[in-house]
């Protein structure tokens, strides 16, 4: 009889289907285990459901937790560290095979990986090259000055939504801050202490939001959200909007969905002219093995995680999604195959170039804030007030910062005395 175990994941839509494919591949590859994979329809609900299930002793063996939930999981102690799981189950893993920048995000200060890197990403700037040509734009959207100029030309050429944006803080606030070398919070974005405070209301981010607001007032940048009927990725693939900032993870979906013959490309996120660009942040999610399951399930979990880390699986997963390969052997295999030489895959190498643009620093290592899901919500609520109700930018961001700091203080209290790493 096969040992069954559960895997909960947050991806949905096309990317969710690809997770199901990965599960099927594993189940077909062996006859000892059966992985049961269930989408929780969103990264934030996966985090919530996992924690609730753990309390009720109904947790899955493996769960997919996004970047923003990393510290919550780390401090919960509700998991089995990656290295321990593999050693306990007889697997020899070359931990150095994971890209350093990615692995560090999920490791303790001593470098011990807590979870398994799986779907790593960064944000990219997508643009419709055919529309650029029609509008007579002969430069790349590499700076925000160029993006503004491109937006004006697109508008003049009759395009209704030169740039579509939503209230996702990940590209707008988090990635923007990193590449512009701005802190999001004190104490190295939380890495150096739970007594961290957000500072996004005092950095270049404030002027950046003001710029977005001005562009929105001139109808050059247009809000596109699910609530309003269409989020930014469908807005781009339906050619409603000609520029968006979103995850490289959407690269596969965009390529499949845009009609044939439409030229498109990606660039690194733009910076303001004169900025010394820094590396962007690792996004996406990692796989955590939850504590408290029967030993037999851990054998299956280890087998599955080992299966995913094989170069051919890394290559397959990266190809069909857009996520960057998380291991050096996976990346080398793709390069050797000439994967990145072909359009539109050429653009995907830019994601790696963006992530490794400079060595990481306090402002670019990552974000290590507790309850970061709620903090993101506070910021998006303030962005919604700014862009939908014309609220004052500085005032809204100040209030969002105040509410975020209250969340951080509660988190600090919950984990008082616990070492961060
Ligand atoms: O869309 P993804 O999977 O690349 O994730 C983006 C962010 O990191 C989510 O927090």
TrEMBL record:
Q: Does the keyword Nucleus apply?
A: no
InterPro entries attached here? Bact_solute-bd_prot1, SBP
Keywords for the protein's UniProt record, in alphabetical order: Coiled coil, Periplasm, Signal, Transport
Q: Where in the cell is it found?
A: Periplasm
Coiled-coil segments:
383-410
The record's listing under PANTHER family reads: ARABINOSE-BINDING PROTEIN-RELATED, SN-GLYCEROL-3-PHOSPHATE-BINDING PERIPLASMIC PROTEIN UGPB
What family classification does the UniProt entry report for this protein?
Answer: Belongs to the bacterial solute-binding protein 1 family.
What biological function has been recorded for the protein in this entry? Part of the ABC transporter complex UgpBAEC involved in sn-glycerol-3-phosphate (G3P) import. Binds G3P.
> What's the name of the protein?
sn-glycerol-3-phosphate-binding periplasmic protein UgpB
């Amino acid at each position: 009889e096969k040992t069954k175990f559960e895997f909960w994941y947050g991806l949905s839509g096309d990317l969710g289907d690809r997770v199901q494919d990965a599960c099927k591949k594993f189940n077909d590859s062996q006859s000892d285990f059966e992985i049961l994979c269930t989408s929780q329809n969103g990264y934030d609900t996966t985090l919530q459901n996992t924690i609730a299930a753990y309390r009720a002793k109904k947790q899955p063996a493996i769960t997919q937790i996004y970047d923003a939930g990393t510290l919550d999981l780390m401090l919960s102690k509700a998991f089995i560290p990656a290295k321990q799981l593999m050693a306990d189950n007889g697997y020899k893993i070359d931990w150095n095979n994971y890209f350093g920048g990615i692995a560090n995000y999920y490791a303790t200060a001593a470098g011990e990986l807590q979870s398994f890197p799986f779907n790593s990403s960064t944000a990219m700037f997508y643009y419709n090259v055919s529309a650029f040509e029609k509008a007579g734009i002969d430069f790349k959207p590499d700076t925000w000055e160029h993006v503004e100029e491109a937006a004006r030309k697109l508008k003049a050429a009759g395009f209704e939504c030169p740039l579509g944006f939503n209230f996702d803080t990940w590209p707008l606030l988090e990635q923007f801050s990193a590449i512009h070398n701005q802190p999001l919070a004190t104490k190295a974005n939380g890495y150096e202490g739970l007594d961290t405070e957000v500072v996004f209301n005092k950095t270049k981010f404030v002027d950046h939001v003001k710029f977005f607001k001005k562009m929105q007032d001139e109808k050059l940048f247009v809000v596109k959200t699910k609530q309003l009927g269409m989020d930014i990725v469908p807005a781009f693939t339906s050619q409603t909007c000609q520029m968006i900032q979103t995850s490289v993870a959407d690269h596969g979906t965009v390529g499949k969905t845009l009609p044939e013959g439409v030229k498109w490309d990606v660039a690194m996120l733009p910076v303001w002219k004169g900025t010394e660009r820094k590396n962007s942040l690792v996004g996406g999610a990692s796989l955590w093995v939850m504590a408290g399951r029967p030993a037999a399930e851990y054998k299956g979990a280890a087998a599955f995680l080992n299966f995913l880390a094989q170069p051919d699986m890394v290559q397959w997963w990266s190809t069909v999604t857009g996520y960057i390969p998380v291991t050096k052997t996976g990346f080398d295999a793709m390069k050797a195959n000439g994967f990145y030489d072909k359009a539109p895959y050429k653009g995907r190498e830019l994601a790696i170039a963006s992530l490794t643009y400079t060595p990481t620093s306090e402002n670019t290592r990552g974000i290590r804030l507790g309850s970061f899901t709620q903090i993101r919500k506070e910021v998006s609520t303030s962005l919604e007030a700014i862009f939908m109700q014309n609220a004052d930018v500085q005032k809204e961001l100040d209030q969002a910062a105040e509410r975020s700091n209250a969340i951080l203080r509660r988190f600090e209290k919950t984990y008082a005395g616990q070492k961060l790493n």
